[in-house]
Amino acid sequence: MNIQTQDAARKDWDTYFMDIAYMVSTRSRCSRRHVGAVLVQGKKLLGTAYNGAPMGVQDCLEAGCMIAEEVEMKLVDGREQPFKKQRCIRTIHAEQNLLLFTDRADREGSIVYVTDQPCWTCANMLANSGIMEIVYHRSYPKDNEKVERLMELKGIIFRCLDHFEPPAQAHMEVTS
Ligand SMILES: [Zn+2]
Ligand SMILES: [Zn+2]
C-alpha cells in the first residue's frame, strides 16, 4: 500500500471515536437500545461506558426490561396529542455511567462521543460535568429542542455526525 492509499483508509478522529463508542455499545444487554459513550481529552480516550443495570444486579437479558409507561405529547396536524410510550428504566444510561466512572478533573474541557443523542436528564448532567463538546450519531427527537437550547445556554458544542456509518458489528435496532 502506498502512503496515499493508506491515508485514504485512515479514519478521522470523529469516525475513530464514534467507532469506539459503537463497539462499547455492543456490551449493553438491554434489548431496546444499545448505547455507548466515550470520554476524550485531547485525542486521548479517558473512559468508556454503556447503558446497563448496576453491577451485580440482574440485567435486562436475565430479568427482562423494566418497562415504565409514559404519556408524551406529540404534534399531529398542528394539535398536541397524548401518546403512550414505553421505556426501559432498568438501565443506567451510558452517559450517566460515564460520569460515574470518570473524574471531574479529566472531564474539564473534554469531548463526549455518544452513539445516541442524549435524553434530557443525561444532557442536563453532562451540562454540569465539565465537558465542552458532545458528538452524537442517532438522533433522539423527543428531547431535541430543550437539549439544544440548554447546550446553547451553556456554550457546549453539540454536533450530530450524520454522515457516520456504524461498524458492522453494532446492534442498530432501537425499540421505541
Ligand atoms: Zn432494558
Ligand atoms: Zn439518557
Walk me through what this model shows.
With 176 residues, this protein is of the alpha/beta class. It has a domain at 12-57 and 92-160: 3-Layer(aba) Sandwich (Cytidine Deaminase, domain 2), CATH 3.40.140. Helices cover 31% and strands 28% of the residues. The chain has helices at 3-9, 13-25, 60-63, 94-100, 104-107, 120-127, 144-154, and strands at 36-41, 44-50, 67-76, 79-88, 111-116, 133-138, 157-160. The strands form two sheets. Strands 2-1-5-6-7 form a five-stranded mixed beta sheet, with helices on both faces. The longest helix has 13 residues, at 13-25. It starts with a helix and ends in a 16-residue tail after the last strand. The mean pLDDT is 93. It binds zinc ion (2 copies). The site of one zinc ion (ZN) has 6 residues, from α6. It comes from Paenibacillus prosopidis. InterPro entries: APOBEC/CMP_deaminase_Zn-bd (IPR016192), CMP_dCMP_dom (IPR002125), Cytidine_deaminase-like (IPR016193), dCMP_deaminase (IPR016473), dCMP_deaminase-rel (IPR015517), Deoxycytidylate_deaminase_dom (IPR035105). It holds the Pfam family dCMP_cyt_deam_1. Residues 12-150 form the CMP/dCMP-type deaminase domain. Its cofactor is Zn(2+).
Helix content: 25-40%
Give the DSSP E fraction (strand runs of 2 or more residues).
25-35%
Number of strands: 7
Largest sheet: 5 strands, mixed
Helical stretch tally:
7
* CATH fold title of the domain at 12-57 and 92-160: Cytidine Deaminase, domain 2
Keyphrases for this structure?
about 30% strand; Deoxycytidylate_deaminase_dom; binds zinc ion; zinc; 7 helices; two-stranded antiparallel ribbon; about 180 residues; alpha/beta; Cytidine Deaminase, domain 2; single chain; 7 strands; five-stranded mixed β-sheet; hydrolase
